[in-house]
Amino acid sequence: MSVDLSTSYLGLSLANPLVPSASPLSGDIDQIHALVAAGAPALVMPSLFEEQIEHDALSVQHGFELGAGTFGEAASGYLPELNDYNTGPQQYLDLVTRAKEETGIPIIASLNGVSSGGWTLYARLLADHGVDALELNVYRIAAGIDESSSHVETEYLHLVETVRAAIDIPLAVKVGPYFSAMGSMARRIGDAGADGLVLFNRFYQPDIELETMTVAPNLVLSSSYELRLVLRWIAILYGRISPDLAATSGIHQSEDAVKALLAGSTVMMMASALLKNGPGHLAVVRQGLEEWLVQNQYESVAQARGSLSQSSVSDPEAFERSNYMKTLASYVPSWR
Amino acid sequence: MVTKDAVAATIDGNEAAARIAHKLSEVIAVYPITPASPMGELADTWSLKGQPNLWGVVPEVVEMQSEAGAAGAVHGSLQAGALTTTFTASQGLLLMLPNMFKIAGELTAAVIHVAARSVATHALSIFGDHSDVMSARQTGFAMLSASSVQEAHDLAAVAHLATLESRVPFLHFFDGFRTSHEIAKIDLIDDSILRDLVDEDLIAQHRLRALNPNRPVLRGSAQNPDVFFQAREAANPFYSEVAPTVSRTMERLGDLTGRQHGLFEYHGIADAERVLVLMGSASGAVKQAVDTLISQGQKVGLVVVKLYRPFDTTAFVSALPESTRRIAVLDRTKEPGAVGEPLYVDVVAALAEEGRQAEVFGGRYGLSSKEFTPSMASGVFDEIAKESPRRHFTVGINDDVSHLSVIYDKDWYQEAKGVTRALFYGLGSDGTVGANKNSAKVIGESTGLFAQGYFVYDSKKSGSRTVSHLRISPHPIESTYLITDADFVGVHQFDLIGTTDALERAAYGAIVLINNPHPAEETWHRLPSGAQQLILEKDLQLFGVDALAIAREAGLGGRTNTVLQTCFFKLTDILPFDEAVEAIKGHIRKTYGKLGDVVVHRNSNAVDRAVDGLYEVAKGDVDSSQPSAAGLPEFAPDFVRRVTALLMAGNGDMLPVSALPVDGTFPTGTAQWEKRSIANEIPIWDPDLCIDCGRCALACPHAAIRLKAFVPTGNEPSGFHSKGSTNKDFEGKRIVVQVAPDDCTGCGVCVDICPAHSKEVIKHRAINMKAKALHVDRERKNFTYFLEIPEINRDEVNVATVKGSQFLQPLFEFSGACAGCGETPYLKLVTQLFGDRTMVANATGCSSIYGGNLPTTPWTVNRDGRGPAWSNSLFEDNAEFGLGMRLAQEAQRDDAILLVTALAMDLGDLAVEILDLAENPDRSDLDTLVSQQRDLVGSLKVRLADMDGPLPRRLEGVADALIDTSVWIVGGDGWAYDIGFGGLDHVFASGRNVNVLVLDTEVYSNTGGQASKATPRGAIAKYAAGGKATAKKDLGQIAMSYGNVYVAQVAMGANPTQTVRAFAEAEQHQGVSLIIAYSPCIAHGIDMSTQMTHQKEASSSGYWPLYRFDPAREASGEPGLRLDSRRPTVSFKEFASKETRFAMLGRANPERADELMARAQQDIDDRWHFYEQMVAIHRTAEYAEVEE
User: Fold this and answer.
1) ipTM (interface predicted TM)
2) Which of A73, A76, A85 lies nearest to residue B1147, judging by beta carbons?
């Protein structure tokens, strides 16, 4: 018996629901081909960082002018003038165009902006370059101690509205879980014009190097454990808000993908597992998903989707606070 | 007939010449030398961009190891038939001379473009005169002189065209800096015109003459007395045709461009009686003088020589009005001992040969870019109007020795109305020069006006001051001299208004714009009283702006240039402000477009905001209490007060001839009097945290952090901190770490290397950068007191350790090197370890500039008056130069031993002691040995003073050679790896007792970052803008191959202990020692405050492995090589990503960068693997010297 894995995400028809998310893999054309060979139905490109673009341009200018006009024997400075510094988004746009032309699958660009002008500028630029959809990678640490949560939320929503107004292509928004009222926030992001919600963004976290006594922010690969948080919110939100729900963070094995699907995910996105195991791992997970669906006599992913969402389970509170109590009570310490 | 509308460009003379050279050449061999380097750099950049020559081929630009190498490559390329050129100046041209004789002797069409510069004599000078090109007169090259930027373009074309026709090679030259670096608006020669002018048949003939195995010939034979002479004369007909050929070419070019040039150009009244003859940029100033004198009814004129060789006597005489009675020939060179300078002699001979009667007088002017003004020209005309003029004279200086200088009224000439003259005073780091280059281009390229920009730099590499001279006029600008009566003065750093001549150079009623970081209402009161006085006296209009605040708001950080440039256009009426704004923004797009939209946007934003902050300053009374610049204390040495003080104040032009040493000999120890006080922040010591490791003092590039141990007297100033020794050494003494607040550059290297942190607040170290303004008063008192504390005795410390060495007095201090310089800490260390017995041979380069460029020198003396004796010979010969010093020492020592032996009867036991020590010195402890030697030589001199006869006198002259001297041969990688390598290699092989210190910055730092063979694979540098494709040369390995050379590769920031040991071992080794010292440089594109950390990463990545190869270990049966680095722990990519020189290529050309990075990693792996094997090898041959 065959299972229909086809999925519609952001209005795009995908052959299956396992989408490689933004990672260095989708930034390399050879790896992109390998991902497609492994069955990637669409690709989320690495994020175009407005801050990085600005930083690059300003640092190139700094290098270019270093020491210039200081000393008569080195009046033009110390570094040679180069033909091109590739400081703008062109390299990214070239990659997007190439990926689109060479793979034939939907290409979803990812954008991380800083200024409102930057978000819309680059969103339009990407739309004009023929990407099939745009994912906003909203990354913000609300560190200001005078900044209220409502102000932060308003800013997020304003951003989504602004970008929505600027482009016609489908729009997904990838956010972190750190909202006081995640449910309300998710609904409002949808109301602001998002066609999809990608849960959840993983941030660089600071670490402390004890040897050098310095702070060293880095990103470690996710583990299946991180899927729990995603499962909770997708299960809660499924069927209650309009945007598609994409699960990301913690999908490593086919079991993880099945769980995310049952919780209500439209697509399951993978990065860490592919970085760890190589692009071919995508096919392994897809096969596992398919086998599970067959074994459990599902005809399609659509049929399975949300079957264990909060609204579909007999114990909906399991996804909420009471869950904590039960877990504790059922936990048997190993020393017993 | 002008066939095409010319395209105007606002460019400098180097670019003007290089554009033609690149267009009309196939092979370009280059080597960097100031002021010609930009020509090669531009050619390289254009070729890298794929810009083709006139025939659609991209010229091959190749950097050679020296100018001699470039000339050789040019010669070979010409022999093989390519259209070939090169660029050079000064010593570089001298290195080309042998090939020039050959190229000319073989009648080979070629062009050398020269930015004419002084040849080093009593001193090096990078500035312009004709002493270099005059040295090439004998080579057989035709010589064509351009007087302006336009002519540097036009005559470059004439040279390339005429050489093809005449077969005589051409040297095309123009004045270094005055023309090579002056920005001017010129008309470019269109390619179509060049095509019309180039005769393809001549090129075909050039090819046919080339070597070709299909029709082989032999050229370069050796000839005997029978035919050499005749063959030499056989070329005469070709030389006879050069002048007509050049003349025709000039005419054809003139027909197509509308610009007529002649072999000799006359400017003046038709019936002139007095005529000046000269060549080069000074003709602009003379023309202005001539026009003024004619308007006053005087009969004067000027002949400008364009084709100097072959000297066409007929054409010259034809250019002179028949009425000429007296001629003053001005030479921009000096030929001591000659009848007269070269042009003078030529003119005298030409007149004689042509039968023309006129009295000729010869003058020298403008050596090393000495100013030459219309007033000086007028003075010359006055001189030759006298009844008995001096036959030979000088102009522009006050010669109170030979009394040759012409007296002139410096205020005689007033520049024409209708020309806007603007001056801008800034610091090298603030972008003032860049902004004014932009302004000149904005005006030149956006309006019908003409613009001229000229830029004056001091010789410091940190805190350097710049003055930009900008003229704007509806007519072409011929004023080839500095502005003295500016209509606009921009003071881009507030303090410069009190420490420069900015207001002295302002015209009456001029506009003055001051960049004022203080509140607007405080502006007037913050001015020094002298400035207030001048503003009132000259009725200057004073405006202020806080450019820094605006720049920061616009997202430009500290880059204030765009703001100040916009304010300049607002305050002047050069063009309507709206148009100016558009033009500036257009130029911003052009300049910064490829750097990215954000850069364009932010600069444009700064333009829009600039004038919002502009305000006029209300003038008040002279009421300031702000101190004016302090003079030197009375106890400063006489020479410093009499001479150095004027140089430091920028008034060296006022010094008479008698004030200067006759032979270029200067006292050392002068940098201490030049309190530049350029730091904004200085390091402040926290004794509670300090572990007195000495690293801050070791790493300080300027000797501005020092350690002493002392017994408190109770007289310490309040706030003079000290601490007990951490290791309980210096018993009974306190330790102090003291900053020299006015000598510190604020680089922060000391903080970066400080290992002692606060437990509670990790960023707080034992030394921290703090605002100077808050600490300077106290630290000045402390430093004064610190200097009075007696230096420690050398036997109180373990000299060969980091800590021990840092309690010794540095005899290299307060240099003008870049803030954070990676080279100077090593030099300072040499002086701490052995400075009082050191002789330094210093290759030309950064170290010779911060070490020996007037006004002051950082090399200094200790309390006994002993210290490094220093000299610079050339760039290419430094190893040989240093070896010569050692040979002289040895010769005099042999002489001294002979004389002591001869006088043994008279000297008695003293002779025995001296001879015994000379024969059996214990060099395991050099400090003690030298101390014993000094005692004996001291006694010897006392005894000799009482002895009569020739032998005691001779012995007095050589007695000091009985004391061990440490010879240090110092230079950069350009010298050691490239131009001086042959000599260095020979010195390696000599086995003599010299120490070689290579300050390896991995580029030619002094000339602006051109690639050397020390440049690593993957780094970008000038002449390697596409990323250096080949690996760095392993100099240490080459030296080690001799077996008896001590070799150490060190990086102070990676392992200071290893560094200090290596220096001590090198000194100990009684043969050749080589230390290759990693020296981070501004050209690496790093934050220099963290350069010591970069060194650490360079080592931990294996990029810069530390090692020592000691032949002494070999002799004792151990492997000679010891690796002092651990196996690499980080990748090269990780290290390289933090340096712009590597990272920039990743941005510009990621694929090539990836390839080169991978190869560079292989280089590292391979070298490490090789060294690891070397460590296990023990060579068995006996390398000890065999007595000859």
Assistant:
1) 0.91
2) A85
